[in-house]
Specification:
Number of strands: 27
Largest sheet: 11 strands, antiparallel
CATH architecture of the domain at 97-229: Sandwich
Strand content: 25-35%
CATH topology of the domain at 97-229: Tumour Suppressor Smad4
Helix content: 25-40%
CATH superfamily of the domain at 97-229: Probable inorganic polyphosphate/atp-NAD kinase, domain 2
Amino acid sequence: MVESWATAHDVDMTVFDVGTELTSEHIDRTKTTLGVSIGGDGTFLEAARSLAPFQTPLLGVNSGTLAFLARVEPQDVEAALNAVYRGRASINARQQYEVTAGEIETTGINEVFLQKHPPEERYGTKVGSLHVFVDREYVGEYFGSGLIISTPTGSTGRAYSNHGPVHYPQNNRTLQIIPHETISAAVDPIVVSQDSEIEIVLDADFDIDVDGGRRFECLEAETVVRITGADQPVQTVRTSYDDPFITAMVDKLDWGLRSVEADGPQAALESQSTSDDFKQRAAHVAREAARSAGEPLQELHGQVENIEYKTDKSDIVTEADYQANDIIQTAINSEFPQHAIQSEENDQIAPPEGYAWVIDPLDGTGNFAHGNPNYSVSIALLENRKPILGVVYAPEPGEMFYAIEGEGAYQNDHEIEPTLRDRLDESMLLSGYDPSGEFLQAFYHETQGVRRLGSAALNLAYVAAGSADGVWEHDTHPWDVAAGICLLREVGGEVTDQHGNPYELKFNAGDQRTAMLASNGSLHEQLLAHMKADGSVQ
């Protein structure tokens, strides 16, 4: 079915056996690539391990029996592939772990299982002690038959069977420690951060099992097992043809948790939906898309600092831009397939009337290429070419700015407001692209200083949040500033061109530059008057 679909859509397809070690020769990162696993969860796990280093999204087709990861049934394969092809799918990140122990040094997505090695004598002891440390802090002695360290994905297997909590796995960055048939008193499951390092010192011989037998080894007493979250998550593809996670749990584990009747709570929930909910839903999608796009940006940003050659850095920046753009467009298309999307890649296409999105997946590429943390993701929703929703996300500090027209502006869920300064000598300004330094010369000695961050979207967000009083951009593009303009206007700031005329997003502007002066509002007339009197900024 997959092969016939690929042929019908003129899509290249390559088939690999389970367990094939994929390399850069197998994956062309200049092309959009989708991984498809066909089998059960074991096949999915092998495919996930192979594809994770390339951040290739993975769709799981369940041709087995019990499956929590491969959730597309064979009869829905073509429909699910069509949804992905048309951009109506979402990408969710699944936490991986890294484990080193004995001869083992590998990654996994499910769990590490430590079980007491069987005694040679029939009546020998079947229990042992494991001493657990988290970030070098001693947690305690686990005395019993074993221990399980699982990701949120692995929480539904051995961990759940040993009375551990089930974690909703999408975009969940944790690890959990679950005792296996322990006879210690007061030993309970513990959940820790993905960044924590779990160290386990063995008092006896234990068998280590990685992801259900993918790696298996007997470890001698006094071996130290080290486990932490892996830097690269597995990117899983979800479509409307997948069984939802809770549905899979109910059906496969027979939880019997819910039975939603036609006139029950689901109908009551939907009856509360109003037109205002559309903007809230759009804002939620935009924030989640920005966070998801920020993950590969952070991962690739860390690689940039260790690369010496410019050509290699350029490849990473291109890859970062591509991955972030793909994640954002997929998320938006999945929820709003009827909306147009405008970005730097299709800058000659003016957005239509009605609803359209304007995105910049990586604003501040120069900073990014040099390992500087001042870069951002910018997403705006336009209604009749006017920004009504804006999201600016800075992945490195984790700052999420967002605004909805008429509903205020926020930074990480705290409402923001600009400064009230109205004097140049008390103000601090930001400068964007200023090729000849005219703005810097005009205002450096008149103010408390002029700073340049290198990201237009962040400049506007910081003015809206009161971290600066105004910003100048010699030349702008809609995808750079649309989200920031929404933020600033929502808090009462002002945005004009260099002459004081209302600023308008211009598409298909060609070589005609679009200058922008933005401020807290109180300072705007002072800025314009000084620019006019100085005459240095035309």
